[in-house]
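Data deposition worksheet. Section B asks for the primary sequence of the deposited chain exactly as it was used as input, without tags or linkers unless they were present during the calculation. Section C holds the resulting structure in token form. Section D is free text for depositor observations; keep each observation to a single sentence. Incomplete worksheets are returned to the depositor.
Section A, Depositor: J.P.
Section B:
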Amino acid sequence: MAAKPRRGIVSLPERRSASKADSNILSRITSTTIISSGKQVARDAAFVSKKLICSTGKVAWIAITTFLILIVPLIIEMDHEQLFTDLELQQTSLLDSLPVAPAHS
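Section C:
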């Protein structure tokens, strides 16, 4: 039941609560086309970023696997070849430095 106004007192209209006014303003602001299009752009950017990250991971996996399968054995083989060449060079330099015995006739 509503209280009866007292005699001699002027009654003022009821004030809206602050939260109702704020939510009303907020709903009007968020329902504008600029905000709606901004939200859509943000959603699209998040979607594209997620897809880009996933595809970048796949590309990185392919590149690393290819490197391990093709390039690393090649590097190891080249290193072995270089060691073999250095060993042959060292052996020839040792053989060249030995004194040659005179041939017996």
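Section D:
DSSP finds two helices and no strands in the chain.
The helical segments are 18-30, 33-97.
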